[in-house]
Design goal:
Structural class: mainly alpha
Low-confidence stretches: 1-6
Shape: flat
Helix content: 55-70%
Length: 80
């Protein structure tokens, strides 16, 4: 396996920083702690995901995280 497939690209490492910088809820100490956790999660995800699926997986998890941070709720079955 090539070293490029084992380590995250520079572009992908910046995803965690840019994700955190755009979140109003993440300020001060919370940002550093959250960013560290996010980096660890994405690194683990990167190692465990097939190479051709990595970008999609990382993007999907970041979208889910942004959705959750916005406190959105999904109501199923026509619940209002």
């Amino acid at each position: 396996m090539e070293s490029t497939s084992r380590s995250r690209s520079k572009r992908d490492r910046t995803l965690d920083k840019s994700f955190c910088s755009r979140r109003e809820q993440l300020k001060d100490d919370k940002t550093d702690k959250f960013q560290e956790s996010l980096t660890n999660f994405i690194t683990h995800l990167w190692k465990k995901t097939l190479e051709e699926e990595r970008d999609t997986e990382v993007q999907n998890w970041l979208k889910l995280a942004a959705f959750v941070l916005r406190n959105r709720e999904i109501k199923l079955g026509g619940q209002g």
